[in-house]
Amino acid sequence: MSYYNNIIISMLTLYFICLLFFLIPISILITYEINMLINLYYLSIKIKSEKNDIIVINLVKLYIRRRRWLFSIRLLEDSLSHNGNTNYYNYLGICYSTLQQYTIARYHYEQVLKIDPDNLMSLSGIAKLYILTNQSDKAFEAYMKILNIDPKDKSAKYNINQLMRSHNRDSRI
């Protein structure tokens, strides 16, 4: 009987040793994967933080170049809930104006102008919206404000000349 007990004990010992040789690598793999998931989670949180506005803006620029307006809008609106960066409002204005949602685009540009009245990107965007909605007088005012801030702005000068030409053409008719 003792012989069989020794065999059983040695078999159990061998079984546990083999089991440990398989379980240790598996537990290391599982620990590694859990660590990777935790790192990815913290990285996703980090992207939404204030320090990574550049990453969000670059991703939005990429979406805009690829004409993925709704992806851009979704990312920007999610980011706005975490951080009220004026660049987010400007890019939302660009996306909505491209989708011909001029009222919403103007709202986003105006949000920037409430925070920073001299923001050239918003002034330029809102001036373009005024042109698209046939509000030449308001567009002219916006371009004049741009020139007051930056007298060398060639785009504003060009657009003012275009507005004046079209106004002269319309007054002749």
Automatic annotation (TrEMBL):
Annotated protein name in UniProt: Uncharacterized protein
PROSITE patterns recorded: TPR
Keywords: Plastid, TPR repeat
Keyword hit for Oxidoreductase: no
Gene name in the database record: ycf37
Species whose genome carries this gene: Riquetophycus sp
TPR repeats mapped onto the chain: 86-119, 120-153
